[in-house]
Amino acid sequence: MTYLAIPISAKDLNTCKEQIKTACAAGAEALELRTDYIEGLNTDKLAEVVSAGKQTKLPVVVTCRDPKEGGQNNLPPAIRIEILAKAVKLGADFIDCEYENFKHGDFACAIKKTLAENGKIKLIISAHNFKNKFENLAQVYEQIFTVCPAAVAKTAYQANHINDCFEAFDILKKHGKKTIAICMGKAGVISRIIAKKLDAFMTFASIEANSATAPGQLTSEQMKSYRFDIIDSATEFFGVIGDPVAHSMSPAVHNACFAAEKMNRVYLPVLVAGGQTDFNEFMDNITSRPYLDFKGFSITIPHKTSALEYAREKGEHIEPLAVKIGAANTLTIGINERINAYNTDYAGAMDALTNAMGITRKQLHGKTVAVVGAGGAARAIIAGLVDVGAKVTIYNRTIARANNLALEFGCRSDDLAGIKNLDAEIVVNCTSIGMHPEVNASPVPAQCLKSSMTVFDTVYNPMETLLLRQAKQARAKTISGVEMFINQAGEQFKLFTHAHTDCPMETLRKATLEKLDRK
Ligand code: NAP
Question: Which residue is closest in CA terms to ligand 1's atom 6?
């Protein structure tokens, strides 16, 4: 079992006690009493907070962190020794002592003596690096186990890139419950969740974002939104690779579907910064560690072309239309860590169109379509439309981009001003015009919209854009970008299950709408 520990980090005893109550209600499985946060800390205050912690019946860790390793209040070594020694006597279940202090001097002698006199207590020996990863992480663990073989060895280091996390995973894989390995910072977020699959002794979450005791620490609510409670050694991981990813709706949506199907699967936000090289390194790290059980990814900005290129370089399977589009938004990892690359953006858009129009993809053949925009989304949708024989005209602010796309896919092109002569059965907005916060803008003048048209806006925030409102007023058929999002996510779900399980579409829709409501 991996304890989900919630640090108690208040300046005064009353707030500490309130935090303890809130932590219990939030599902804490252990409490870390960060006594170094308490102002005017002395053994009486310690006794009160330990007693409040012990009343919960949860395991209690007492930490009095050295300021050199992130501790508060600049407490001198003599006080910290006194606090830890007293915590042992007060019946704390664990004390956390820094390796640098434990290995020599008065500090070590005092702690060792107290531990020897109180057999039951366990020791966590920790090392921190708030700047970057340790030069030799494996050696840090070896050194800790050498000075105290019975201790739980803990490191917490700053991950400046997600690729810095993999050494920590290797340590957890090797030593499991004898260890804690936390990667701090935004790039290290996944380490806090994956720790449970790898049987780490403990991982940490805060009560609220503003009470985090380390950079990148998630709240317990966020941890639970990533299905923390169901994770075990057999859990398979999925995720959305992007930069940024914190705003992505995909984790909420896919986790809701996995939960509805009672699957032992968890979907994570995967922040991969940088370009092709960093992307390749990340994927190599994943595929060389089958023990992590990463089985598939959604890919978002800026990595869709990198994902396709990675699959191409490795000679993996790529869906033909993804090649034409020049971008992959889905990777699945199959038997022998083989990769499959797909693009579900075009499929999601095509399904949104055909479902609303009550026709098949083939029946789009010969239909006149005005696509506004010439970026990534436009490219995927144009490839899909041209593939079924629709007659596409591309309108774009930067005419050269429209011309190039038109040349590549055999369609017509015009600049954005040309849209005033719009004459098409279907209009698709693939620009970000009208997206939050610029909600009072539309790429198409209202007077160009007719009741005979189907108007599809790929923007989904807001769900009903100005373009769609004006199209409704013109009595045109309207389709929101939400439909495209839902359909592409449904396609991904099927790909993630290798078409063995139909996507629970109602769950997907509900989770998407709930997420959008909160935006
Ligand atoms: P992109 O590659 O950056 O392309 C942006 C496009 O918007 C370009 O054609 C750009 O024109 C145009 N544009 C941006 N601001 C403009 C402005 N102020 N005036 C005129 N044109 C402007 O982005 P993308 O990946 O294609 O995404 C575009 C939109 O598609 C996003 O806003 C998103 O809402 C939507 N989308 C929806 C889904 C879904 O599932 N529903 C999925 C993907 C994307 P220039 O070439 O002149 O710069």
Answer: 431
